[in-house]
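Re: that chain you flagged

S.,

Sorry for the slow reply, it's been a week of failed gels. I finally had a moment to sit down with the sequence you sent. For the record, here it is as I used it:
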Amino acid sequence: MSTVTSRHYFFAILALALAIRVGYALVTPPFQAPDEYSHYSYVKYLHESRHLPIQPSPAVAPEVLQMHQPPLYYAVAATLFPYTKLVDGGIRLPARFLNILLSLLTVCVAYLFASTVLPHNPFAVALICTGVALTPTYSYISASVRNGTLATLFASLGFYLCAKVVLDENEQRNARWSWIGVVAGLAILSKLTAIGFVISAAGLILLTSRNWRSLCHRAWWFSLGMFATAGWWFVRNWLVYGNWLKVVETGYDFQPSPLTWEHEKQVVITLFKTFWAVFGRINELHFQDIYRFYWWFVALAAIGLLRYAIQRRRDLPHALLAFFVLAIGASLAATLYYAHNYNSDQGRYMFPVLIPITTFIAIGLNSVVPVRWRRIVLDVVLLAFVGINVVVLMRLSAFYG
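Prediction finished late last night. Pasting the structure tokens below so you have them in one place:
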């Protein structure tokens, strides 16, 4: 494969991602996607009131359940609200289509990222783009009204900028970290699930700084950019709620389960399934065949990663690998914490670290697939991802039709 070939794959992937998302947006009835009504109500509130909401405690009504969320996505969507209509059982332009645009921009960022960190590996570049563009849950979720898609876009842009910093270490200026801080602030202002990127970016400063002076300078610039962008939000939370990090409060009397191996294992399995394939309020039993495919797919990538480690290959700098491991670990820890304390074990909360996850999958598959078979394997993976989305679209159409 050549770089030109990977570029052709990218355009094909982008076109397929657009078509699939438009299909999801048209097939899924209003408010059938997870929490869509609550997110829609936040957008409507901002449009009508022109000021940020205060979530009641406890929050019981569906229309107020998401009003603790950071406001950036809703402020953008509110400007388009007058043109949003409920027509023929579906939310039409531009409410859902704003998120489609944001997710396609994320695919473009993924291509820039992959081409930068793996410039001589078009197979891995195309795999990363396939994962970001066509992961079924992400494709479905990004065709609905919600704030996570904007957080994923900014976090992905942050990973790209951080990768540039690592690769251009000899030419970088400490002030470049201020822009990374701004992007981190925008990600946090979109959704708190971007915390994995923020924590790992802070860790990358520690990993790449040569001395204490450099560490302090970079930390200062990063903090300046982030708090200049998002600091006011935390101050507002403290003034309004008495808590700098407002987390959803519901009227349901939920008591966290004791920490047991069996319970936590089930949570992790659920997170895996809902990361790859969950589609609104349809029972997951409809998609056991899809889960089976992704268990095998991820297992093959894991075997490849093990081989990569044994061979001590250096396709990526060690600092970048550590950065990605920290990002995924921090995001997983935050997701598990939320699942344990708020009874919401949703794999989609890890989409802000979609780029590191797909990068590890691409590296793993690259390690086990012989060079002469890579074009065939890439075509099979691409067709499998597209085919799964088409099957889901057909099932959703039959279910909602």
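What I noticed first: The chain has a mean pLDDT of 87.

Talk soon,
D.
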